[in-house]
Amino acid sequence: xxxxxxxxxxxxxxxxxxxxxxxxxxxxxxxxxxxxxxxxxxxxxxxxxxxxxxxxxxxxxxxxxxxxxxxxxxxxxxxxxxxxxxxxxxxxxxxxxxxxxxxxxxxxxxxxxxxxxxxxxxxxxxxxxxxxxxxxxxxxxxxxxxxxxxxxxxxxxxxxxxxxxxxxxxxxxxxxxxxxxxxxxxxxxxxx
Length: 192
Fold this sequence. Notes:
five-stranded parallel sheet; 5 strands
């Protein structure tokens, strides 16, 4: 534990301390990456996969804070993807369950970005694809939401994602999701 929950306050009250903590964390990841690269050579990754960074706490900071506090360190890691995977353009972001649109301008500044995984149905995925050409966009149906939707509402969400041009759509199959919804989901995916 470098700083703990106090880190979130540091972003506002002690930005130099937040940068120091992020620099230390980034250097540690870089060292681990270097160790594995030296020990085992380049990661063998499928052509459609890369080096993914999770953005699960992203909903806790604004796009401006992301640009100031996350982007510089993320770009250091992005520049390492070629070193790790043996190919350029293999840097992926997991944008966890929040709307992507407010972050589009800053995501354009992420080096070697090849894929965004996540977002939610409030995201304008057509705009995301247009603003980030060449970046693969994968997303999923919120399984909790799907449990309580009518079939029409569920299919509207699925069709929206299919029509928006995302590359991959996932659905966590929970026991509470009726089989009819799962079958409708699979049939809609045939359009992809």
